[in-house]
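Hi C.,

You asked whether I'd gotten around to modeling the 429-residue construct. I have! Everything is below, sequence then structure, no commentary in between.
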Amino acid sequence: MRDYPDELLIKVLHRPLSHNIQVPGSKSITNRALIMAALYSNECTLQNPLVSEDTEVMIDSLCRLGHVVNVDGTSMTVHKSTSKWKKTDKTVELFVENSGTSMRFLTAMVAVGRGRFRLDGVPRMCERPIRDLIDALNQIGAVARCEANNDCPPVIVEASGLPGGRASLRADLSSQYLSAILMAAPRAKQSCTIELTGTIVSEPYIDMTLAMMAHWGLQVRRTHNTFEIPAQVEPYTITNYVIEPDASAASYFFAAAAILGGSVTVQGMKRDMLQGDVRFVDALAMMGCVVEELDMGIRVTGPDSLSGITIDMNAISDTVPTLAAVACFATSSTTIQNVAHIRHKETDRIAAIATELRKLGIQVDEIKDGLTITPKAMLGCVLDTYNDHRMAMSLALIGLKVPGVAIRNPGCVAKTYPGFWHDFDRLRI
């Protein structure tokens, strides 16, 4: 990705859209596939992976654990570990920047190995809770702790293989805790049973993990909120896996069609994708957009006017900032509910969205688990991103129609979409 200035002025686009867009591979699927390829395949090639900061830190960690990962831009090939991570006598340091998936998935992964591991990240990563995952791993025989004796990284894991057993895990903060344990548990010495308590957040990501595990031949028996994972010493190992286009990345281009009118088709998108965020188009349909599934992908056509809606976005919470940007152009208020857990993302997204939209002149009423956005006349200004990739990409959408909008720290999109600004500029072609 090229260097960007501290502030990037977004140029207004004065016409409806008519575009076909191709977005990169899914970050969520890429990082899950990297973990499962490392644990369960002798050699596995991932087709159409995402190459970004979040996946690069995962690859770096796998390499520190003795794996060889070859990346050629259109594929990644993961080779079986040299077993260094199972035998080392010294602490293996893993640094994951601000990648929540990497921190959580790797914490569970190293617990089934042997050695001492320290997982760390940037200051914000060290403010993001991980205690519930640590407690659950310890219940099934791991020896793990937060180094500062708080709820957050750095994490220390003293691994000598994972015994297995039964654990209770809170489900109301992050679905990634369960996904982390599910992917590692087949390597435990005995079966593991995980019982979820509380309201499950982002459940489509759990479904994604289960579907990918099934593809790898890994068994999980689910009964309501209880998951039983048998110990599977020799699971079926696959050698090739194709990764879907990133549904969260697609949301920005679908939203552009909603705001400007006209149509955008994102290639390769299907209603039956593993990623729950494909359902973002249903929210746009509620606001008046036309959504069509074509042979080449999903097309969204913007209406003459957008209607405000009330919507529970728990299952598609990564697209909350995107919908918030669209809501600024509706004819009535939009209320987004049941997303309290996004306060623990790269930033407190509820507070950040409210702060930045108010700068533009929008009325925002912030509640504990969401917000209400009431459209008002907007004036351009410089908007802060909080080093949060999704804030940057979502707020840029407003600048397509409101003159004078600039995005501070535009380079933060490298976390999950290094080529975003290039693809965003293609809307002007």
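If it helps when you're writing up: The chain has a mean pLDDT of 95.

Thanks,
B.
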